[in-house]
Amino acid sequence: MPVIEVANLHKRYGERVAVAEVSFHVERGEIFGILGRNGAGKTTTVECLTGLRTPDGGRLRVLGLDPALDGARLRQRVGVQLQEAALPDKLRVGEAVELYASFYPAPADPAELLDTLGLTEHRRTPFKKLSGGQKQRLSIALALIGNPEVAVLDELTTGLDPQARRDTWRLIEQVRDRGVTILLVTHFMAEAERLCDRLAVIEAGRVLAVDSPAGLVSTVDSEQRITFRINGVLPEQALRALPEVTALSIRRDGITLSGKGNLLNAVVTTLSAHQLTPLDLSIERSTLDDAFLALTGAALTDEQNGSTR
Ligand SMILES: Nc1ncnc2c1ncn2[C@@H]1O[C@H](COP(=O)(O)OP(=O)(O)OP(=O)(O)O)[C@@H](O)[C@H]1O
User: Taking CB atoms and a 6 Å cutoff, what residues make up the pocket around ligand 1?
Assistant: First the structure.
C-alpha cells in the first residue's frame, strides 16, 4: 500500500483554483519531490495532505488515514516542516525542541538532533535572534523530533547557504536511510536531482509528469555535445560517418561533436581504432532543467533554481 495517495485533488481559494487536479502516490522509503515554480500549487497540495486545509475534491490518504478526519492520529506519525514556521520570540532553540519532543510517545534524542543540525551552540538562543538559516534548521529539527514515519518538508533549503544546503541534503538522506518516507516540496532543480527518487512536476495546479529525475531527463530529445582535444591527426571522415554524429566542428581549442544515442562510446571507439586518446574530454547532456523546460514551456529562473555550483 502506498504511504501517500493523492487522487484527483482539487482546491480553490474563492474563485481562484490553486490545485486543479493533482494525483500521485508515494511508496514507503521514497524521497518523493513535488517540483514546480511559485504558485504552481505545491504548498496547497501538502497543506491538504497534512490536514491544514480541506480539499474541495479528490481522495487523500496518508498511512491509510484521511488527513481531514484523522488529523490528530496523523500528527503522531507525520513530521511537517512548513514554509515560514514561526515560534514565540523568546522561546530558546533547546526549549523548542524539548517542548516538541514532549508531544510524542517515542521522540528522537533532542541533543543528538540539535548536534546533527549544527544547532548545539545555539541551544540557548531565543527564536527571535536566529538567522534565517538557523530558523530553517530548527524547523527541520521540529519536523523530525517525533521520529516520524513520514516527513513532509516544504522548501527545505530555501535561505540556506550552499554549504548548509549540502549538509541538509546529507541529513535528509540519512533520515531516508532510517526508513522514513519523505515528501519534499522544492523549486530547486539541484535539490530535486540530488535527493528525489521520483518527482511530480506540477504546473498551474496540474501534474505534468511523474518519474525519476533520470526518467524525466530521458524524455527530452535533445542532442549531446562532446568536446575534447587530441595529439595527432583527427580521423574526421571516420567520425563524420558515424550514425551517432550529427555535427563536427574543429576549433583551435578543441573538437566538438554533437549527436544522439551512445555518442561517447562511438567516438571513443573510433579514436582508439586510430590509436588516439581524447584529452580534456567533457560531455554535455540534457539536464532536469531541460526536462522541466520541455514539460512546462518555461525554465525556472536562476534565482529559483538555487544552483550551488
Ligand atoms: N490563502 C490563499 N488565498 C488565496 N489564494 C491563495 C492562497 N494560498 C495560495 N493561493 C494561490 O493559490 C495558488 C497556488 O499557491 P501555492 O502556495 O499552493 O503554490 P506553490 O506552488 O506552493 O508556490 P510557492 O512556491 O510560492 O509557495 C497561487 O496562485 C496562490 O496565489
Answer: 13, 16, 18, 36, 38-44, 187
Q: Which domain holds residue 119?
A: 4-218
How far, in Å, from the CA of 108 to the mean position of ligand 1?
33
Residue to probe by mutation, ligand 1, list 43, 84, 199, 206, most atoms within 8 Å of CB: 43
**pTM, full prediction:** 0.82
In a domain, 292, yes or no: no
Condensed to tens digits (0 to 9), the pLDDT of residues 98-136 reads 999 998 888 999 998 898 888 999 999 999 999 888 888
DSSP string computed for the chain: --SEEEEEEEEEETTEEEEEEEEEEE-TT-EEEEE--TTSSHHHHHHHHTTSS--SEEEEEETTB-TTT-HHHHHHHEEEE-TT----TT-BHHHHHHHHHTTSSS---HHHHHHHTT-GGGTT-BGGG--HHHHHHHHHHHHHTT--SEEEEESTTTT--HHHHHHHHHHHHHHHHTT-EEEEEE--HHHHHHH-SEEEEEETTEEEEEE-HHHHHHT----EEEEEE-SS---HHHHHTSTTEEEEEEETTEEEEEESSSHHHHHHHHHHHTT---EEEEEE---HHHHHHHHHSSPPPHHHHT---
Same domain for 244 and 121? no
Q: 15-66 pLDDT, tens per residue? A: 999 999 999 999 999 999 999 988 999 999 999 999 999 999 999 999 999 9
- 145 and 256 housed in the same domain: no
Q: Does residue 259 share a domain with residue 132?
A: no
